[in-house]
Amino acid sequence: MMVSNSILGGIADTVAQTITAIRQRALRKHPNGRLDPREDALAIEIHELDRKNPFSKHELIPESKLLPPPFDFERLTRFMAYGFFMAPIQFRWFKFLERSFPITKSSAFLPAMKRVAFDQLIFAPFGVACFFTVMTIAEGGGRRAVYHKMRDMYVPTLKANYMIWPAVQVINFRLMPVQFQLPFVSTVGIAWTAYLSLTNAAGDVQESRLLQPGEIRLP
């Protein structure tokens, strides 16, 4: 499960970096930042989705001059390592929910709903906070960087989580055996982790904009 979670995290970040690279290529073709509707249709669609994103006041795919390299292997490694080390925590959490709210043939719906409620009210806020904290520290940021990332990204990301994951977890807890719950969540979560990757990158860009030329980022 740890290896599977790591691989799926790597796939998700690869998707996120690919999306970013597509828009970067299109913007470099048009230095004024305006995309020709006849060119790079996928990049234009990505830009429109980003602009209409209701969960964040910052662009998830920032301007090309502030983008990371075409493919950031260090970032990929961070996501794979995060997925690897979070797998035991997630698995133990699912085992706890299974023991606390057993699903039987005579009682299935209510225990499943209790699992979803506990998961979304307890683990989801912890998971989002853990993700931004660990990723920021892994990128070399200190307390100030963690504070800014949490201030700018935590609430929008948690709102996005509540738009997606309750429905996914109903299916997960109602239909999946416990040994398949983490792989199911990780597979469905490829798109979610890609969103987190873009959000985390956007937060890094926002933090860099707060620094004046020559200013040193303090821990």
UniProtKB/TrEMBL annotation:
Tagged with keyword Membrane: yes
GO cellular component: membrane; mitochondrion
Keywords of this entry: Membrane, Transmembrane, Transmembrane helix
Membrane spanning residue stretches: 117-141
Coiled-coil region(s): none
Recorded topology in the membrane: Multi-pass membrane protein
Subcellular location: Membrane
UniProt keyword Transmembrane, yes or no: yes
Database matches in InterPro entries: Mpv17_PMP22
Primary location group: membrane
Highest taxon in the source lineage: Eukaryota
Family: Belongs to the peroxisomal membrane protein PXMP2/4 family.
Protein name per Swiss-Prot or TrEMBL: Integral membrane protein
Native species: Chaetomium thermophilum (strain DSM 1495 / CBS 144.50 / IMI 039719) (Thermochaetoides thermophila)
